[in-house]
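tool_call: predict_structure(chain=1)
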Amino acid sequence: MSFTIRDSQIKDTPQILGLINELAVFEKEEDAVEITVEQLENDGFGENPLFHCFVAESNSKIVGMALVYPRYSTWKGPVIHLEDLIVTKEYRGTGLGTALLTSVVKYSKKLNVKRISWEVIDWNEAAISFYKSKGANVMRDWDVVQLDEQGIKDYLKNNN
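tool_result:
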């Protein structure tokens, strides 16, 4: 299977959202996706983009993506966060995931960041093995902590 990795364009956002929804189904969270094509367009392609996205294209179809954004580490300095690396099911095992990750690493090196960080769901052993095979340190002793939209509202109501 042949594919090309490139920077995403605004016209790609419907297919990017399709991949995001595919990942949500895979992670058993199909009802959790709230983002829209319009929000992806505004957030990624406006005057001050909040993220950068690479897409993998095969036969004029987006079959994979990697979405990153800048963070800052108080210990290290500038960091890139890999929000999602998604490869559609029929392209897994073709080298596409490696090609996307390579694009992220080259992009991060160009930005001179000190680290690339991301999360992987603990039951996705295939992804964990993939990342370890690429030299990533999978830190199983850390937990992800979040306040969702309702949690933010509740916090401010109770701690103002």
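agent: The longest helix spans residues 96-110. Proceeding to next step.
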